[in-house]
Amino acid sequence: MSKNKFIAYENVFDEATLRGLFKLSGQGYFEEIEGPISTGKESNVFTVKYKDEKRVAKIYRTSANFKKMYDYMKSDPRFAGVKGTKLTIIYAWAKKEFRNLLKAREGGVLAPTPLAVHQNILIMEYFDAPLLQNLSPKKPKEFYERLIKEVIKLFKVGLVHADLSEFNILNLKEKPVLIDFSHALDARYPNVQRLLKRDMENLVRYFNKFGLKLDEETEFERVWTHRK
Ligand SMILES: Nc1ncnc2c1ncn2[C@@H]1O[C@H](COP(=O)(O)OP(=O)(O)OP(=O)(O)O)[C@@H](O)[C@H]1O
Ligand SMILES: [Mg+2]
Question: I want to staple 137 with a disulfide (CB 3.0 to 4.6 A). Which of 74, 143, 146, 163 is the partner?
Answer without folding.
Answer: 143
